[in-house]
Amino acid sequence: MPLPDRALAAEDLTRCTLCGAENQVRVFPAALRSLPQVQLETALEGEAACFDHPAKRAVAACRHCGRFVCQLCSVEFSGEIWCPACVMARAGSAAEANLETSRTLYDSIALIFPLMSLVVWPLTMVTGPGAVVYSIVKWRAPLSLVRRFRWRFVAAILIGLSLVAGWLLLLGYVLVRARTGGR
Amino acid sequence: MAERVSYRKLPGHRRGFIKGASTWLGPDHLLLVRSMRFREEYKRYQLRDIQAVAIAHRPRFHISTRAFVIGILWAIAYLVLSSSRVPRGSLVAWALALVLIVSWFYVSAVCSCTCRIYTAVSRDELPSVYRTWVAKKFLRVIEPQITAVQGALEGGWMDALGTQDVGPQVALPPAGSAPDTAAERAGEGAPAPSSYLLVATLLADGLWHALALFRPFGWASVVSNLLALAVIGVAILVLVMQHRQGVSPAHRGLAIAALTAMGLVYYVRVTLVGAVAGARAALEKKAIAVDYTGGTLSSKIEMGITLGLGIVGLVMLVAHSIRQPGERSGPS
Fold first, then answer.
1. Per-residue pLDDT for A132 more than 90?
2. Average pLDDT for B180-199
């Protein structure tokens, strides 16, 4: 739904004409720009044609692979023209740009399982060493786009080692008790 | 490499038990991060493409993990004050709880908002910006950044805009027309009959605990357990209805909070009572009887939780009926 009334932008705080809620709106020059219309032109005989659409006239060549692209296929990318395949494959400098839309947070997984298993403590026999191994295996896996440190992996390893130490102590205590006949 | 892009955190952070959100400023774009505990989803808004940022004041009854921590701290303070020799310790704790709840209601009802970001092809809400003071800070930070990329609007821009709409070009529904689907109704926060039932059972459970505390009688715990089962059953019903027909997200959150609270109360009570009884039996070297109802302290905690959740639900229902005065305020 578009903004209900552009008069909203005339004042700092105003009431919406549709729902009655108080609104504060900031409009920027991009609102005045209209979307570019893509007009595909048919390639005449002897003219360069698009790699993916042979019937359409090529307007540029991909910066990475050199394939001809029509206006529909041309992707403007860091001031250069790319073909969709190279952008999808994150080739060349496309790899520099971050186009990821999601990431799995392995460091959070490593940390949460030993902590959650404390609620049902016998599970810590598995989750303790598991957290240590998992953290080491996934140490080099990419973190969140906005996190810089691997402290969750470090915390998971420390908690996992503590749990392992706890179980070893318990095992030692039980063995000593069994050897001394419970005295 | 992807990690080379450095981001600066923008004001606002939604901290939920399962879901969270935050917004970050990159070299030429805003990054909206929606986190689901083990996974993050990203959406980028190029600074050059942002057409408008709109902040609409409206109530937001969100229980963040920070509020949950404050609740835990209050519970610890209550235990310390009620067991120490501080005169009227528990009264002080309950007064503190009242202040905290009233503050949360006030902030949620009066100082809350939604923040939307408009581009030519999208109109998205920024979940991390939901308090008005955060929204003002957010605007203060991003406005110069966008202006630096796009330049400032010149005088007479309203005329230049003409009949062109800001945001994606989607047809508005006819004025006065009702939403077609349950999902749309859920988007507007319309409570379902099961939501009313959940609030009623929560309040009944809380009030029954209060009654049983002040005038204890033999079969109080039987009714209390039945009411607890009713709360759990209705909360599950709300989640099922949400899945099948669509219930407002706030009432779904209330159902999840009720289920979590009932589970925690049951588990913690049994664990603590069992641990204390076990320790006593070991020290005294004799078998002792165990009362798994947990005594008055457990009842007080359960009363506080169920009454608190019931009041939160009641306020949500009242807030909805105030927002839509023409709409029927109860289930048929």
1. yes
2. 64
Q: What pLDDT was estimated at residue B328?
A: 42
**Tokens found for residue A101:** 């839309």
Q: What is the 3-state secondary structure (H, E, C) of B225-282?
A: HHHHHHHHHHHHHHHHHHHHCCCCHHHHHHHHHHHHHHHHHHHHHHHHHHHHHHHHHH
Domain ranges of chain B: 8-59+112-149, 187-323
Buried b / exposed e along B15-52 (16+ C-beta atoms within 10 A): bbeeebbbbbbbeebbbbbbbeeeebebbbbebebbbb
Nearest to B151 among A8, A22, A29 (CB): A29
8 Å CB contact between A146 and B9: yes
Residues 6+ apart with CB under 8 A from B262: B228, B231, B232, B235
How far is residue A131 CA from its own chain's centroid?
23
**pLDDT 10s digits, B209-232:** 888 877 767 677 788 888 888 998
* Whether the Cβ atoms of residue A40 and residue A56 lie closer than 8 Å to each other: yes
Q: What is the DSSP letter of B37?
A: S
Closest CA to B64 of B251, B253, B279: B253
**Residue listed under structure tokens 């470090």:** A154
Cα dihedral B314, B319, B322, B324 sign: negative
User: In terms of Cα–Cα distance, which of B155, B56, B169 is closest to A17?
Assistant: B56
DSSP string, chain A: ---S-GGGGGSSSEE-TTT--EEEEEE-GGGGPPPPPP---BPPTTS-B-SS-TTBBP-EE-TTT--EE-TTT-EEETTEEE-HHHHHTT-GGGGTS----EEE-HHHHHHHHHHHTTTTGGGHHHHHHHHHHHHHHTTTS---TT----HHHHHHHHHHHHHHHHHHHHHHHHHHHHHTTT-
Residue B172 to residue A1, Cβ atoms within 8 A:
yes
Mutate to test the interface with A, among B17, B50, B51, B324 (most CBs of A within 10 A): B51
| Alpha-carbon gap, residue A30 to B279, rounded angstroms | 70
pLDDT at B31 over 90: yes
Residues 220-279 of B with CB under 8 A from A: 267
Q: Which residue has the higher pLDDT, B124 or A18?
A: B124
Q: Work out the angle at residue B225's Cα, subtended by the Cα atoms of residues B221 and B231, and round it to the nearest 5 degrees.
A: 140
| Separation between Cα atoms, residue B318 and residue B250, nearest integer Å | 13
Tell me the whole-structure pTM to 2 decimals. 0.68
Q: Determine, for residues B51 and A16 on separate chains, whether the beta-carbon distance falls below 8 Å.
A: no
CATH of span B8-59+112-149:
2.30.29
Whether B150 and A30 lie within 8 Å, measured CB to CB: yes
